[in-house]
Design goal:
The chain is of the alpha+beta class and 1031 residues long. It is built from 14 helices and 69 strands. It is elongated, with a radius of gyration of 33 Å. The two termini are 29 Å apart. Keywords: Carbohydrate metabolism, Glycoprotein, Glycosidase, Hydrolase, Polysaccharide degradation, Repeat, Signal, Xylan degradation.
Length: 1031
């Protein structure tokens, strides 16, 4: 490591190959509506054609995206199938890709994503990502139901919603034909199931999924559970509840097993909706607040089965709920074509209720109902189809102002024809972003291949003026028969709360990689870890509390973060910060933010302004208050309210301070810690007032991907097996998209800067905090990046317990030796199989460029032969990891280089396993540190003659003599390493100058400019390195 102290953000990154997220430092994540696939504020119209022929695969299925703008929908659509570029899977006959769709910004990148169901022989769901250019097949993923493969209908229904209140959209997937059962006197049926995939910053995980079932026995069993899905706030708690429809089974003379409705509240459990007759012919489902009471109603469409003895043309039942949990009860309201105020008349076979959509069409605050009747005859033409708009109001549905639309309605394009089935699907989205919902109607029988018609919203509701019809031929696709274009529409029903979510449950975030914090989803247990920062001379020891960096909050406006502490044994702290802290192995730069520390009934409120002028060795708050609390167990809140910071206890403001520059970044980073004890967190939420933006966001590294034009890709082409790496910290990878993209896209090897040093891994004897290092290694694995561990034995960055191990007597040395060897074995065993190589010794020689071993703890306990002891212990724990001794000042020929090579040989002669040496190649003063090509060539010859390999381990170069000289030195070092087979890898000590901080001898803080990137932009040194690798 460098002699001057550099720093990087401390944090973590959590990633998954399924679905990843991104958050740039400078640009807050936008809240984006479902189906806004290009993030421009205009939701696209997704149209499914599950019968589309793709190549020779009949019924393979596909979808068409109709772009939206201020002018509404465009004919310049594009078709996506499983044969499209980048889309996972492949088209298969009768695969029925696009049998269902659902949309949300699953990865919080400001672009809505799309889940696409395919109900072929084996049901699947494909995840497609939005981007600035719209929907793309890049990074697409196919999900399947766990368990037996078969015709389960997995993907027949989909809905996206934040079902657990953590601020991330979850995905519910219906599999109505799962779990076949025998039905007496009827055909075979199926119980069905619904899989709920929990979303988060790491994306969807099958490990975090849950499977819901309906009633699976008795006369009131639920058959085809999951045939339809919707979400909304049914119980009035401002959280999204899942509503599941079971279609039931129909007999030729009636309904042997009627359909049913089940509500699964956000708090857990599922409640069947009581009904004396059930819901025979259940065909559709929607959720919305029709009456404006603050609870969403559930609306189901009931259509008599073909051949059933019924003169009814269908009915719509609206369920208004009261009670909560198992006490949910529903009051039914029935609409038919015979209901007062509903246009038209009732006829058998109308299929009134086959499709439903809810939305406030006339903008009066009440959800209005669109009802499709695709079987209705128009002008004597059977199955021509019609759509009816029924307005909502305070007393329920209104009896006036309701309207019906068909293809013979004035202004609606085309004409009503037999088997068009206009109204088979309906959808409401504000395509032109004018604040008015637009209606899209599917007619999958139109012209044998299908079509959709759109009616714009207007001040009076819907207007036929400017209505348009879209077919497959207008999307650039062919028009084979039976494509069923329009059989599926993206849009409502959607989660009414998803776009306006203003509460994030922080207990449900992923705390696994935060030291000292253990959560089960319902509470957090926090304990003191003793993590601290020790200075090079062994002094200091100021606390270094961890921060949650796998998830943070985007809050550009007013917000409140609230927490309740219980079982406090000594102290409990909450920090809410503008950015992660900058942490080196000797100091910590506190960001702007607020820290609340509770001891007994004393609440200390500390405000930091993030100024670089602070004494980083002992940062002090710019404002501090102590408040005596009447009830220490009451909920505590940190609120931004305009230009004030307010601290509240039990809802009462106990401190109000000027906000200043605090919380100006629009992002919130959270930490929980205790210096001396432990405590429990029973509730932990973030909320924003109505109209304000609040969202959870994941690590910036998640979306970054290796590039075929990156430095590692060039190196592989120039010299296969040669690695180009950088030293990194988890924090910048989580918080800075520029940094994350620069590293992941360009480099093929990773060295942890600080999180694998002893003071980070074992702040207390016998206790280990691997969480941050594990997060970094998990990221490396997900990106295909090799890891070089750093470090085991080191004179600096040692925890107090390690520094103070006694060594005065033989007995003390034996006990201390056991403690040190236990540390080595525990650490290396923990990381076994995840490290390609490891610095078993770091900077063993004295700090004045001499050749004598530092008489550190390891030396005092084991004597001058300690390198061999450490090397053997590492080998015993992980015989496959390649061992190195890392040193500065040994990159040019001379006594220090000779001493390093001699130490490696002697260690091996004593039974050690040293494979090579790390040459740090720090060039901070070109007058004393410059490395010439000739010196480097000689160095590598010397290393090779010693029977060792070398790695350039920490290269960085000052720009004090200009960028051109800096670039030349970088190029010289890399070129020398690349040309020698002795040199196996090249690593820079850091990625971006944004995180290159150091202290001078007087303790003053300075920012360096020594790396390949500066503020997210490549420097001339980067260009020079790239040129070397490109030959």
């Amino acid at each position: 490591m460098p002699r001057r102290t550099t720093a990087a953000l401390l944090g973590l990154a959590l990633v998954s190959p399924l679905l990843l997220s991104s958050s740039a430092v400078a640009a807050p994540v936008r809240r984006v509506a479902p189906y806004d696939l290009d993030g421009d504020g205009h939701p696209e119209q997704v149209v499914g054609a599950p019968g589309l022929q793709v190549g020779t695969a009949k019924g393979a299925g596909g979808l068409v995206v109709l772009p939206a703008s201020t002018k509404g929908l465009s004919t310049a659509g594009w078709t996506i199938t499983q044969a499209s570029a980048g889309v996972a899977g492949e088209p298969v006959a009768d695969g029925h890709f696009a049998s269902a769709v659902a949309s949300a910004d699953f990865d919080h990148d400001g672009y809505a994503d799309l889940a696409v169901g395919a109900t072929g022989e084996v049901g699947t769901v494909t995840l497609l990502h939005g981007s600035s250019k719209g929907l793309t097949g890049a990074r697409s993923t196919v999900l399947r139901r766990a368990g037996d493969a078969g015709p389960d209908g997995f993907g027949a229904s989909l809905v996206a919603a934040d079902l657990d209140g953590d601020g991330w959209a979850d995905l519910a997937v219906g599999a109505p034909y799962a779990d076949p059962v025998e039905v007496p006197a009827e055909d075979h049926g199926a119980s069905g199931s619904v899989t709920v995939l929990q979303g988060g910053p790491a994306g969807f995980s099958t490990a975090r999924s849950s499977v819901l079932h309906g009633r699976r026995s008795g006369t009131d069993r639920d058959l085809l559970f999951g045939s339809s899905l919707a979400t909304g706030d049914v119980d009035g708690d401002r959280r999204s509840d899942l509503v599941v429809a079971s279609r039931g089974l129909a007999a030729g003379d009636g309904h042997a097993h009627a359909g049913s409705v089940t509500v699964c509240p956000a708090g857990g459990g599922c409640v069947p909706v009581p009904s004396s007759r059930g819901y025979p012919g259940l065909a559709s489902l929607a959720v919305g607040d029709v009456s404006g009471f603050g609870r969403d109603e559930v609306v189901v469409g009931l259509v008599p089965a073909p051949g059933a003895r019924s003169t009814e043309g269908g009915r719509v039942v609206t369920l208004a709920f009261s009670g909560t949990g198992a006490g949910l009860r529903a009051k039914e309201t029935v609409l038919t074509r015979s209901t007062k105020g509903v246009p038209g008349s009732n006829h058998a076979g109308d299929d009134f209720g086959a499709a439903l959509a809810l939305g406030d069409v006339d903008r009066d605050g009440f959800a209005d109902l669109l009802v499709g009747a695709p079987g209705e005859a128009v002008g004597g033409r059977r199955d021509a189809g019609r759509v009816t708009l029924v307005l909502g109001g305070r007393k329920g549905y209104r009896t006036s102002g309701n309207k019906a639309y068909d293809q013979d309605t004035r202004g609606v394009p085309g004409s009503a024809e037999t088997r068009d089935r206009f109204g088979a699907t309906v959808s409401l989205l504000d395509h032109d972003a004018d604040g008015r919902l637009d209606l899209t109607v599917g007619a999958p029988g139109e012209n044998g291949s299908g079509a959709v018609t759109t009616l714009d919203g207007s001040g009076a509701g819907l207007t036929t003026r400017g209505a348009r019809t879209f077919g497959l031929e207008r999307s650039g696709s062919s028009t084979p028969a039976d494509a069923a274009f329009g059989a599926v529409l993206g849009g409502s029903p959607a989660d009414p709360l998803l776009a306006r979510r203003s509460v994030v449950d922080l207990l449900r975030q992923d705390w696994r990689h935060v030291p000292g914090v253990v959560g089960d989803g319902t509470r957090l247990r926090v304990r003191s870890t003793g993590k601290s920062i020790v200075e090079q001379d062994g002094g200091g020891g100021r606390p270094n509390p961890p921060v949650l960096l796998g998830t943070h909050l985007v809050a550009p406006e007013d917000f409140a973060v609230s927490v309740s502490f219980a079982d406090v044994t000594a102290d409990a702290s909450l920090s809410v910060q503008d950015s992660p802290p900058v942490v080196a192995d000797e100091f910590r730069i506190e960001p702007a933010g607020v820290r609340l520390t509770l001891r007994g009934d004393d609440l200390r409120v500390s405000v930091f302004d993030g100024s670089p002028r602070q004494d980083v060795r002992d940062p002090r708050p710019t404002q501090e208050e102590h408040v005596r609390l009447a009830d220490p167990a009451a909920e505590l809140s940190v609120r931004r309210s305009g230009d004030r910071l307010e601290i509240a206890s039990g809802g009462r403001t106990v401190a109000s301070l000027p906000r200043g520059d605090v919380f100006g970044s629009g992002r919130l980073w959270l930490g929980l810690s205790s210096e001396e004890g432990s405590f429990t967190v029973g509730s932990f939420t973030a909320a924003a007032p109505g109209g304000s933006t609040l969202a959870a966001a994941g690590p910036a590294s998640a979306r970054a991907q290796p590039s075929s034009a990156g430095l590692q890709a060039l190196a592989t082409r120039a010299r296969p097996g040669f690695l180009v790496g950088a030293a990194v910290a988890p924090g910048p990878l989580a918080a800075d998209a520029d940094y994350a993209d620069a590293f992941v896209s360009g480099f093929g090897a990773l060295t942890p800067e600080n999180v694998m040093k002893p003071q980070a891994l074992s702040p207390r004897r016998g206790e280990y905090t691997f969480e941050e290092a594990d997060a970094l290694l998990d990221l490396a694995r997900s990106k295909g990046v090799a890891v070089h561990g750093h470090t085991i034995a080191f004179s600096e960055a040692m925890p107090r317990w390690m520094q103070e191990l006694p060594s005065g007597t033989e007995e003390e040395r034996r006990a201390s030796a056991a403690a040190l060897l236990d540390y080595v074995t525990t650490v290396v065993t923990h990381f076994q199989g995840r490290l390609a190589s490891l610095d078993v010794l770091n900077e063993p020689f004295d700090v004045d460029q001499g050749t004598s071993l530092q008489e550190n703890t390891w030396y005092r306990v084991f004597g001058p032969g300690y390198p061999a002891v450490v090397s053997k212990a590492v080998h015993d724990a992980d015989p496959d990891v390649r061992q190195f001794i890392n040193e500065n000042g040994a990159d040019v020929p001379g006594p220090r280089q000779d001493a390093l090579l001699r130490l490696a040989r002697d260690t091996n002669a004593q039974g050690g396993h040293i494979a090579g040496v790390g040459l740090q190649a720090h060039v901070y003063d070109r007058g004393t540190d410059a490395i010439s090509a000739d010196d480097l060539a000689t160095t590598f010859r010397n290393v090779g003659r010693a029977g060792l390999v070398a790695r350039i381990s920490e290269n960085d170069v000052t720009d004090a003599e200009g960028r051109k000289a800096q670039a030349s030195q970088f190029a010289t070092v890399l070129k020398g390493c690349l040309r020698s087979t002795v040199c196996v890898s090249y690593t820079t000590w850091g990625v971006d100058d944004r995180y290159d901080w150091w202290l001078d001898d007087d303790g003053d803080l300075h920012q360096g400019h020594d790396l390949l990137f500066d503020g997210g932009k490549p420097t001339p040194a980067y260009d020079a390195v790239r040129k070397v690798l490109a030959g």
